[in-house]
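for the writeup, i need someone to sanity check this before i put it in the appendix. the sequnce is what the collaborator sent (i think, or maybe the updated version? ugh). structure was predicted straight from it, no edits. if anything looks off just tell me and ill rerun, i have time this weekend
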Amino acid sequence: MSKYNLETELIKRLKLNIQNDKEKTLNEFLEFLKEKETPIIESIHDDPDNSLVTIFYFAEEPTDNVLIMTPILPALTDENVEEHLLERINDTNLWYGTYKIRSDVKFSYNLFPNDSLLTCCEERCKNMRADRFNKNKLIFNRPGSCKVEIPYVNMPKSDKNFWTEERNNIPKGTIIKYEFESSYFIEPRVINVYTPFNYSNDSSPYGFITLTDGHDYINVLKAEQVLNNLIYDKKIPPIVAIFIDSTDKRSEELSCNDLFCNSVANEMIPWLRKKYNLSDDPKKAIISGLSLGGLTATYMGLKHSDVFGNVLCQSGSFWYKRVNTNEKNKYQVESKKRDNELDCWISEQIKLIPKLPLKFYMNIGVLENKKTMINNSLNVKETLESLGYHVDFEFFKSGHDYLSWGEKLASGLISLIGHQND
């Protein structure tokens, strides 16, 4: 995936028409984009594996540059800034970028007009713009935060969603909201508990899955639909799901934080067992999460295999390295370059612990950062396998961007507790 430095026929015609009649051409092209929607995807002659994707930005204010951030491009550095900049068409307010992209992936992107072009810029997100011509958007409307829209693209040969799609004529489970108090959480923590259709306190105890970033799993990744569909299709037995909401201390809590892990395993699960008919067999319990949550799921499995016998890790942030601080039980996240690229802190922890009764499902996106994400995930996989652990590992065709984690939650559940494992 790379920036395409040649002009497509569309861009050539557009530039020529602007030279002839600028105002009319821009007005007509604006209406074209509203009707056609963006990005514009064009096939490449004799190259069925890739397509050309053109993204447009109509500036409504004086604009000096437009930066694009997307997993289809390498991470922004001082050396590759030009690759991340859209090009202006003549002296108009219309900007564009054309990219050669695999025809079978999904990817997200955002635009930043008048960007500072600094590699690390904490203020960048305040100037983020969603492509107004792209109707496909991930919506993040987390409690206490501003609504965020992130546009995305399904390439022509990308996989269709199946498990995340709601079906109208099947039995549905129920979700109940709670506020959980513990000795660790400063304020009550919101958790949502899913029970399957026909849940009964008098039946055999239910297996369960516990997920961090619970709000996102329910509202963005459609985990409720995933569970309803899997259970109806008899891919997995009926299970209970525990969704733990994150707070503004997410990066601290999900960085292999022993207090957080102890609270979930030793306080939250026993508290829920008093309310629900949950199995006490670790083989029927899963701890799951994405990104830092995937890292924490792995760590919690190592620390609390007496509670969770299964780890479902989605795009785990295994670049993490624990750093000692002066504050007790507080850990920082460090992503600095290490002397050994494959030096992986969590892998070293795995090696220090005698083999545990754990099963793992792991996934990672083909568009994710090779050094920090893919290589470290493979490192963890190979470390686990070298010690005799069962690991199902899967690449999915998108990036670190919520476009596949919902579907792959289904893959993980089938892998770990599917009926074929009975």
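Confidence is low (pLDDT under 50) at residues 325-341. The domain at 174-421 is CATH 3.40.50.1820 (Rossmann fold).
thx in advance!!
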